[in-house]
Write a structure and sequence with these properties.
Blueprint lengths: L9 E8 L10 E6 L12 H10 L3 E4 L10 H13 L4 E3 L3 H4 L3 H13 L3 E2 L3 E7 L2 E8 L22 H8 L8 E5 L5 H7 L3 E4 L8 E2 L3 E2 L14 E5 L2 E5 L16 E8 L12
Parallel strand pairs: 1-14, 2-3, 3-4, 4-5, 7-8, 8-9, 9-13
Antiparallel strand pairs: 2-14, 6-7, 10-11, 12-13
Helix pairs in contact: 5-6
């Protein structure tokens, strides 16, 4: 990428502190990618890759809708993972758009990702170790009925995804360690929080598409207005949620709502107040 060339997305950084974090994870950097929807930033993603390499993350997580049914969307996503896998551990969960792909195409996508070294957390968890200590990362794939889109077949009014539903898919949260949850849809953060997620990373809302100063994002994909968890950092009962406003878009036009690359740094409580946003 040429020096000084302006990128068409913003980099947003957060620091999250927790006394549950092992000392070895203080300063641990996570790149959070979500809702790319087949978008490409520069030739072969060079703009996006340049920014990611600048951050030097310890981990890259992808919280769904990186690919969709658009022409070339899947190939674009796979090329991005190919470029990243040689440098960083990659963890991925499918979003609603991947789940809506034809089964054969969806299975092919998952195989290609796994072949390239991506860890696909389809209602699974694994351990991330660092200098003898560890945290756990969980990947939740919410059944489509819980996306509450009245225009989608199978819509059920009033349905809610509970902490018990989370437990049924992921098992019990390990209270002895720090738990990082990848969950595409932030609507059910209270359920993730009560299940035991210390930090939840989500996307899906696209920042509300149109952002109104003082009011927030206007529209949720479930065709409701002013979603509570539209984008950014939220803290409830000592648990944290970071919602990416996404890197792409598949409907309408973003207004006052640029695409964003999210960077999260885990740190000690004494170093930085947990709600501070640093860019």
């Amino acid at each position: 990428m040429k020096k000084g060339k302006k990128v068409p997305f913003k980099t947003v950084c957060y620091r999250i502190n927790s006394e549950k974090l092992p000392l070895e994870f203080y300063g641990f950097r996570i790149i959070h990618l979500s809702d790319l929807h087949g978008a490409v930033y520069g030739r072969n993603h060079n703009m996006l890759l340049h920014k990611i390499h600048e951050v030097k993350p310890n981990l890259v997580v992808m919280t769904g809708d990186l690919a969709d049914g658009s022409r070339g969307g899947m190939l674009s996503f796979i090329k991005l993972t190919e470029a990243l896998c040689g440098y960083y551990p990659l963890y991925y969960i499918p979003g609603n758009h991947e789940q809506e792909l034809e089964r054969e195409i969806y299975d092919k996508l998952i195989r290609k990702l796994q072949h390239r070294g991506v860890t696909v957390l389809n209602n699974k968890w694994c351990t991330i170790s660092r200098r003898g200590s560890f945290i756990k990362i969980y990947g939740l794939v919410t059944p489509m009925v819980y996306y509450k889109d009245p225009m989608r077949e199978g819509y059920e009014r009033g349905i809610c995804f509970t902490a018990e539903n989370t437990r049924e898919l992921l098992g019990e949260a390990d209270e002895s360690c720090y738990n990082l949850l990848l969950a595409h849809n932030p609507l059910y953060f209270p359920s993730y929080r009560d299940w035991g997620a210390d930090l939840t990373l989500s996307g899906h809302i696209h920042g509300g598409i149109i952002r109104i100063p003082g009011l927030g994002g206007l529209l949720s994909p479930d065709v409701s207005f002013f979603p509570k968890y539209d984008g950014g950092h939220f803290e409830e009962k000592g648990k944290h949620l970071i919602v990416s406003r996404g890197l792409g878009n598949h409907f309408l036009v973003r207004v006052c709502n640029p695409p964003e690359l999210v960077v999260i740094t885990l740190c000690a409580p004494a170093l930085l107040h947990s709600s501070e946003k640093i860019s």
